[in-house]
Design brief:
Elements lengths: L1 E2 L2 H9 L4 E3 L6 E5 L3 H11 L8 E3 L15 H10 L4 E6 L6 H4 L4 E5 L4 H9 L4 E2 L14 H8 L6 E2 L11 E6 L2 E6 L5 H8 L3 E2 L22 E4 L2 H7 L5 E5 L12 E3 L6 H16 L5 E4 L8 H12 L2
Parallel strand pairs: 1-8, 4-6, 5-9, 10-11, 12-15, 13-14, 13-15
Antiparallel strand pairs: 2-3, 3-7, 4-7, 5-6, 9-10
The structure holds threonylcarbamoyladenylate (TXA) and magnesium ion.
Threonylcarbamoyladenylate binds next to strand 5 and strand 6.
Length: 316
Amino acid sequence: MIGTDLQKAAQLLAEEAVIAMPTETVYGLAGNAFSPKAVTTIFQVKNRPSFDPLIVHTSHWERVPALVRRIPEEAVLLAQHFMPGPLTLLLDKSAAISDLVTAGSPRVAIRLPRHPMAHRLLEILPFPLAAPSANPFGYISPTTAQHVADQLGDKVPYILDGGPCVVGLESTIVGFEKGQTIVYRKGGVAVERIEAIVGSVQVRPHSSSNPQAPGMLKSHYAPSVRFVIGNPEQVAANHPDLKVGTITFRRPVSEVPRIYQLILSPSGSLDEAAQRLFAGMRHLDGLGLDLIVAELVPEQGLGRAVNDRLRRAAAE
Ligand code: TXA
Ligand code: MG
């Protein structure tokens, strides 16, 4: 059931149920982070391997110290600039956070959503919410309530509808190792903006064997249709026998029917491209195409996160 009733959502969460909630990045599959039952249900509903930890969401920075052991100076600065917002900080966890949530890691991922509905919900709850993106494991993240209903509708009692997500890509995940700031996942806060606050950062290439972030598997965000990165005109010309869909940054592809094309931002805005990417990929995935070919966008600002998702969608 889809609705906008915050009290109902809060009531279900208090009863250790798992519901879907909007955030400005993507929709989350949320449960009481302090309840082993709720956390276990999240892993089951999402079909997510238990070695892949969950982000813990809260409403106010004042609530963070209870969840972590210490907060580095850089984390305070980043929080001042980007929280609430599409930033997640990896911090040493306190005893309040169970190993179930962090998959045994000594660090917990903390995020303060900026979406007014998520913020209000977290504010009225006496516990934080563990929430991964509300998609089946490995598939494209949902950016509308309907996306969640399409795939998990029969598995959650309630989907809180906060409209389409304005950022459209997951949060940027940042942590600290020996005084160095590390970006583990490119996302809704551009790397350049983080560097403007804390100086140069190290961007970790994702890998399925990265013990720092076991969930950042290379193949992810994947549509069901075969997906490649390349030159759309060329790939379409090479496969005259196939129904090919295309993703371009701002221009149309002349050889391909317009309905099989996703043009991310005709005006050339990387923020708009990020916002429209996942919904567009889902749409193309539902058209019965044989192949989707995407061109990369400029490697700057949110374009870096867009390209990261395109590459992962294309990974084997
Ligand atoms: O924007 C977002 O971050 C969304 C919204 C719902 O908040 N959430 C989200 O969650 O994208 P999820 O679970 O789909 O992706 C979180 C990523 C995973 O790759 C996970 O492995 C990593 O964060 N992660 C979570 N906790 C971690 C931890 N303690 N240490 C290392 N990586 C962690
Ligand atoms: Mg996810």
